[in-house]
Amino acid sequence: MPISPDPHDSVTETLTNRWPAQHPEFREACLAYTDAAREVLLKLLQLIARSLGLPHDRLNDYVKDDLSFVRLNCYPECPAPELALGVGRHKDPGALTLLYQDQVGGLEVRRKDNGQWLPVQPVPNSFVINVGDCLQVWSNDRYESVEHRVVVNDTRRRLSIPFFFNPSQYVIVKPLEELVSEEDPPKIFKPGKVYRVTLYNGRRVAIKKIRNMIGSSRLKRKVEQVEVEADTLRLIQHTSILKLLCCISSEYIDFKLLVYEYMSNGSLSEWLHHHDLRTPHEMALPWPICYNIALGAAHGLSYLHHDCSPPILHRDVKSTNILLDRNFEAKIADFGLSKLFDNLGDEYSMSGYVGSHGYIAPCIIRFPLSFPISQFAVFFVDQFM
Length: 385
Description:
Blueprint: H1 24-51, E1 69-70, E2 73-75, E3 87-90, E4 96-101, E5 107-110, E6 117-119, E7 128-131, H2 133-138, E8 148-150, E9 158-165, E10 194-198, E11 204-211, H3 217-233, E12 244-248, E13 255-261, H4 268-273, H5 287-307, E14 312-313, E15 322-324, E16 330-332, E17 339-340, H6 375-384
Antiparallel strand pairs: 1-9, 2-9, 3-8, 4-7, 4-9, 5-6, 5-8, 10-11, 11-13, 12-13, 14-17, 15-16
Domain Fe2OG dioxygenase: 66-167
Keywords: Glycoprotein, Iron, Leucine-rich repeat, Metal-binding, Oxidoreductase, Repeat
InterPro entries: IPNS-like_FE2OG_OXY, IPNS-like_sf, Kinase-like_dom_sf, Oxoglu/Fe-dep_dioxygenase_dom, Plant_LRR-RLKs, Prot_kinase_dom, Ser/Thr_kinase_AS
């Protein structure tokens, strides 16, 4: 790392992790624990392979040069536990996680059907095994990575030791060929879906994948939409518009990738309709934040309509297409149906309407009466009514 903040100073210093000197036996204990945890999880991975009808060593090569690591977590008492989380909602990205925890409790898992958070009661002298994203992909969704989090309390501190069993960095994570067929296509990496990816430098990005498949009119439209989105976002630079980092395509792969900046707070729709914040309030987001979100979306649409040349009409503004960063700043996303206009006020004809039901941009419809209505009004009604 640089030894000074001076950009012209090229002198660097190398820092290495060191074991505590005051407890020499601590290092040996940790190494012995990680070796034992790795052995247990490798055996469990072999049993999982057999449960899938595969040879027991089918996944061994994937974890041969594993990037596993262990954490020693301490969650101190929190004076206001209703306002904080020990660890926010997430899924483990690796293959398996071996968790040892004390009897205080705090681990919660999220139900898929209703979004409810359920506490995982600690069992003495036992471990919690968590399926990671890699195993879900390998098994073609037969095993599922569960969303979970850690809550805190105001009376007792909590200790936990998770061991994350991760594959080699050179492994391509995709469904196993033996588990994929025409009757059972890949469940993960579905065309048009968006995935969170953590890069090697720790930065998180969002990736939308569109597969090229000749003969499928639906997928051809998806490819056309992703090309429209890439061409549109390439022209836009605004704080209220989701930033497109790059577009990846090649003649050697059968899909396209759009790489975006990652929005850690998801979509506005999640917060308005089914996002659980462990709060008794009917409205999860307080009014100042809602006002700021509406203002940010308005600034973004105003930029598209009045500051871009030619003007850009989004044509599908709704709460699911308004994304929120870690500071709850609004970003307009999903420009697959957008259209460029020489003059936004000019009339034009369409062979059919586009967009989601109930969210068709009013400014493209010919009304017999003239009255002030805009695409933003649809979004605003959806948000607050």
